Amino acid sequence: MADSKPAFSDEQALPPKLPDDLLDEEPRQEPPGSFLSSLPQFFVFPAILVATLTAVYLLLRVLAGSAPVDASELFRDLEAAGPHGRWQVLHSLATGLGRGTMDLSEVSGEELERLYVNLQAEGETPAEQVLMQQYLLLVVAHKGDPRFTGRALAALDSSDRDLRLTALQALGIMADAAALPALEVRLQAEDPDERVLALGAVANMTGPEAGAILRESLNSSDSIIARNAALLLASEPYREEAVKPFLLHMLDREAYSDDPTLDGSLRAVMDVTSRSAAREDAVEQFLVLACRAASELGDPDAVPRLENLREADPSLKVRSAAIDALHQLGSS
Q: By residue range, what is the domain housing residue 295?
C-alpha cells in the first residue's frame, strides 16, 4: 500500500497575449470586481501554508508522546486548505490516529461522512483519487461508526489492489462484526496479502462467528493463514485446547522447510539471498510465537520440543523464547 502523497504543483495562469494595437489605444478601464478575481492568489496559498504548519505542529506533538490530541483541531483545516494542504492534513490525521495519539471524539460522524463524500473523488488522476480514498478510509475507520463499514466494504470491490488492502486494514480497525462475511470471502482471495489482512481484521473481533472463521482457517491451504489462526485460537479469548497438536508441529523447525509461502509475496522478484532472509524471518517469528502460545496453554507435551529449541536452534530469539516458555511450564 502506497504511503507517500503525490507531488502537486499549482498551475500558474499565463498572462493574456497583448493585442498588437493595444499601445495605440487609451488604457482600458477594468470593470468593477476584477480585483476579486485576483484574491485567490493572496488567500489560497496562505491557507495551504496554515494547514501544513498546523499539521506539522500537531505531528510533532504526536512524536513527542504527549496526551492524545483532539483531532478536530486538524480536521477544521481540511475545508479551508487547498488540495496540497489536504494531503498534508489527512496524512497527519491518519498517522496520529493510527498511533493512538489523536482521537475523533469531538468530530461527529456526520462531519466525517460529509468529508468522505466531498473528498473521495478529489485528485487530478485516478491514482491520486485512490490515494485520497486510502487516507480517508484510514481516518474514518477510527470513529467507530458503523456507517463507514459500508464505505470500506464497497472499497473491497475496487480494481485497485492498494485500495483493497487499505479497506481491509480499515475494517480491522473498525472491528465491526457486520464485515465478517466479507472477510471470510477475502480469506480465499488469490492475493496472499489480502488473505493476511483479512485474517488480521477477523482477529480484531470476538464472538462465535469470528471464532468459527478462525477454526475454519486452520484448514487453509495457505500455511501462513493456518499457522496464524492456530496462534490466535491459542490466545485470549479462545484458549482452545484443540490447537495443541497444531502448535507442537509449529515448534519443529523442520516443519517449515520447503514451504514457498514463507518466501514472501514478492518471491518472483526476489533474489535467492532476499528469499532466504524473508524465510528465516518468518520461521523465526512463528517459532517464537509458538513457544509463547504453548506456554500460555500450559501444554506439557510441548516440553521436549521446547528443550530442543533451547539447545539447538540457531536463532537467539527462538532460544530465548523457548527458555521463557519452559520457565512458565516449570521445566526450566
A: 221-332
Predicted confidence band of residue 278 (pLDDT cuts 50, 70, 90): confident
Domain count, the chain: 1
pLDDT confidence of 241, banded at 50, 70, 90?
A: very high
Asked if residue 100 is part of any domain, the answer here is no
SS (H, E, C) the chain: CCCCCCCCCCCCCCCCCCCCCHHHCCCCCCCCCHHHHHCHHHHHHHHHHHHHHHHHHHHHHHHCCCCCEECHHHHCHHHHCCHHHHHHHHHHHHHHHHHCCEECCCCCHHHHHHHHHHHCCCCCCHHHHHHHHHHHHHHHHHHCCCHHHHHHHHHCCCCCHHHHHHHHHHHHHHCCHHHHHHHHHHCCCCCHHHHHHHHHHHHCCCCHHHHHHHHHHCCCCCHHHHHHHHHHHHCCCCCCHHHHHHHHHHCCHHHHCCCHHHHCCCHHHCCHHHHHHHHHHHHHHHHHHHHHHHHHHCCHHHHHHHHHHHHHCCCHHHHHHHHHHHHHCCCC
Residue 283 forms beta bridges with which residues?
Answer: none
Q: Which residue has the cell 501462513?
A: 224
Let me know if residue 254 belongs to a domain: yes
**Residue 38 within a domain:** no
